[in-house]
C-alpha cells in the first residue's frame, strides 16, 4: 500500500513539473509575440487608449503597480509607462518587494531610451527627499514622475521612523505631544507626491506585499488578470473599473 501511494505521489509531482514547464514555455512565446505586436501596433494602441480615456469619468492621479516577488519586469514597466503618459497620469510608482527594479534602475532607463525614446522628455525620475512639487511640473514642462519602490519603502520605513521618533523623544529633541498625524504624513511622504488612488497587483495572489501601508489607506486595489504579460486592453478594462468606482474615503 505504501508503495502505491509513493508511486502516486511521484506521478503527481511529475505531472505538476511537466505542466509548469509547458506553462513557462507558453509564457515565453506569449511575451515574444507581445513584444512584436507592441512594436508594430503602437499607433493603434495609442489611439485606443486616447479614445477610452475620453470616455472615462475619472483617471487616477497616482498609480502604483505592485509586482510582489516577480522579477524581470523591465519590459512591463516600459509598456505601462507609455500607457500612463498617453493617458496623462502624472505619477507612477513601481513596487517589487525583492528590490529588483531599484537595483536595475539603469537597465530600465536604458531599455526605455532604446524602445521609447519619444518618452524621455516627458519623464522625471523621483528620488527620496527630492523636494519636487505636487503638480507634476518640472522645468515648466508637464512630466510624469516615476518612483521605484522596494520593501524599505513600505513597512520598514514605518519601523525606521518609529525608532527615529523614539530616539528623538529620549534625547529631548522632540516632545511626545508633538507627534501627530500631520508630522507622520510629512515624514512618511518624503517624496512629496500624492497618495496613490489606484493600485494594480501584478500577479495571481491578492496581496499588497507591504507596499506603502501608510500612504495606501484609501487606495482602490485591483488584481491584474495575467501574471506575465499585460495588454493595453486589460489595462484599460481595469481603468474603466476604477472610473466607475465610488471612493468614499472611509465615510
From TrEMBL:
Signal peptide span: 1-21
Keyword set, alphabetical order: Endoplasmic reticulum, Magnesium, Membrane, Signal, Transferase, Transmembrane, Transmembrane helix
Enzyme class: transferase
Pathway recorded for this protein: Protein modification; protein glycosylation
GO cellular component: dehydrodolichyl diphosphate synthase complex; endoplasmic reticulum membrane
The keyword Cell membrane appears for this protein: no
Enzyme Commission number, as recorded: 2.5.1.87
Subcellular location: Endoplasmic reticulum membrane
InterPro entries from the UniProt entry: Nus1/NgBR, UPP_synth-like_sf
Single GO MF descriptor: ditrans,polycis-polyprenyl diphosphate synthase [(2E,6E)-farnesyl diphosphate specific] activity
Gene3D superfamilies for the chain: Decaprenyl diphosphate synthase-like
Name this polypeptide is given: ditrans,polycis-polyprenyl diphosphate synthase [(2E,6E)-farnesyldiphosphate specific]
Highest classification ranks of the organism: Eukaryota, Metazoa, Ecdysozoa, Arthropoda, Hexapoda
Amino acid at each position: 500500500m505504501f508503495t502505491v501511494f509513493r508511486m502516486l505521489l511521484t506521478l503527481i509531482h511529475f505531472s505538476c513539473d511537466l505542466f509548469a514547464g509547458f506553462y513557462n514555455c507558453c509564457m515565453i512565446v506569449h511575451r515574444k509575440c507581445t513584444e512584436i505586436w507592441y512594436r508594430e501596433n503602437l499607433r493603434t494602441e495609442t489611439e485606443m487608449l486616447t479614445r477610452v480615456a475620453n470616455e472615462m469619468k475619472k483617471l487616477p492621479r497616482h498609480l502604483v503597480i505592485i509586482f510582489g516577488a516577480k522579477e524581470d519586469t523591465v519590459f512591463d514597466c516600459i509598456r505601462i509607462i507609455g500607457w500612463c503618459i498617453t493617458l496623462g497620469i502624472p505619477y507612477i510608482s513601481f513596487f517589487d518587494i525583492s528590490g529588483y527594479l531599484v537595483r536595475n534602475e539603469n537597465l530600465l532607463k536604458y531599455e526605455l531610451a532604446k524602445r521609447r525614446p519619444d518618452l524621455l522628455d516627458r519623464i522625471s525620475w523621483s528620488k527620496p527627499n527630492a523636494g519636487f512639487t505636487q503638480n507634476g511640473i518640472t522645468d515648466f514642462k508637464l512630466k510624469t514622475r516615476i518612483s521605484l519602490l522596494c520593501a524599505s519603502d513600505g513597512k520598514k520605513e514605518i519601523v525606521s521612523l518609529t525608532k527615529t521618533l523614539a530616539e528623538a523623544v529620549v534625547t529631548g529633541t522632540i516632545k511626545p505631544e508633538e507627534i501627530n498625524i500631520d508630522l507622520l504624513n510629512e515624514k512618511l511622504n518624503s517624496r512629496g507626491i500624492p497618495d496613490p488612488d489606484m493600485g494594480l497587483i501584478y500577479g495571481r495572489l491578492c496581496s499588497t506585499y507591504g507596499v506603502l501601508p501608510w500612504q495606501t489607506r484609501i487606495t482602490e486595489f485591483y488584481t491584474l488578470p495575467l501574471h506575465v504579460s499585460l495588454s493595453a486592453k486589460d489595462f484599460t478594462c481595469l481603468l474603466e473599473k476604477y472610473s466607475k468606482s465610488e471612493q468614499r474615503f472611509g465615510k
